[in-house]
């Protein structure tokens, strides 16, 4: 028994030409509001009032932030603005902070000390590592 698996479930269907139903509703709503403003207000004031409405409708219909619709971003912004936040101020003791910074500097100095090796000693160590490496590679080849 064969079942038909839906394809492209993340893409909304285009209903009104190149527009989805949501896009059409946003643009038609903005068009209606702009038309009412144009009929009620003088033309200059209507243009000034219609500009942000058209921009908001276009953003709601077409703009995406991080591949998420602008409606979700607007919803999150409003939720954040309306939610209560608790701010707690804690007085920090400056002396403790200075002592902690000084101790951090001392530990960094201790950790950064590296013994100096002469060139001949460095060559000896490199040679011994090469010898050990070649011995171990020969044992692997024999197995």
List the helices and strands and how they pair.
Elements: E1 14-16, E2 19-20, H1 21-40, H2 43-62, E3 64-65, E4 68-69, H3 70-82, H4 94-111, H5 119-142
Antiparallel strand pairs: 1-2, 3-4
Helix pairs in contact: 1-2
CA gyration radius, whole angstroms: 35 Å
Order of helices and strands: EEHHEEHHH
Number of strands: 4
Mean pLDDT: 82
Strand content: 5-15%
Largest sheet entry: 2 strands, antiparallel
Q: Within the largest sheet, what's the order of strands?
A: 1-2
* Structural shape: elongated
Number of helices: 5
Pfam family, one: PrgI
Keywords: Membrane, Transmembrane, Transmembrane helix
Transmembrane segments: 44-63
Protein name: PrgI family protein
What do these coordinates show?
There is one protein chain. The chain has 143 residues and is mainly alpha-helical. The chain has a domain at 14-82. It has 5 helices and 4 strands; from the N terminus they run ββααββααα. A two-stranded antiparallel ribbon has the order 1-2.
Short descriptors:
transmembrane; membrane; 5 helices; 143 residues; mainly alpha; elongated; single chain; two-stranded antiparallel ribbon
């Amino acid at each position: 028994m064969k079942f038909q698996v839906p394809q492209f479930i993340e893409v909304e269907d285009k209903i009104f030409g190149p527009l989805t139903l949501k896009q059409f509703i946003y643009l038609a709503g903005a068009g209606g509001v702009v038309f009412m403003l144009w009929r009620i207000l003088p033309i200059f004031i209507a243009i000034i009032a219609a500009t942000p409405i058209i921009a908001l409708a276009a953003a709601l219909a077409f703009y995406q932030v991080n591949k998420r619709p602008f409606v979700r971003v607007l919803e999150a912004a409003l939720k954040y603005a309306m939610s209560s936040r608790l701010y707690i101020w804690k007085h920090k003791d400056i002396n403790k902070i200075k002592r902690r910074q000084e101790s951090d500097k001392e530990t960094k100095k201790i950790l950064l000390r590296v013994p100096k090796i002469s060139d001949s000693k460095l060559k000896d160590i490199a040679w011994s590592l090469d010898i050990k490496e070649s011995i171990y590679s020969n044992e692997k080849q024999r197995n």
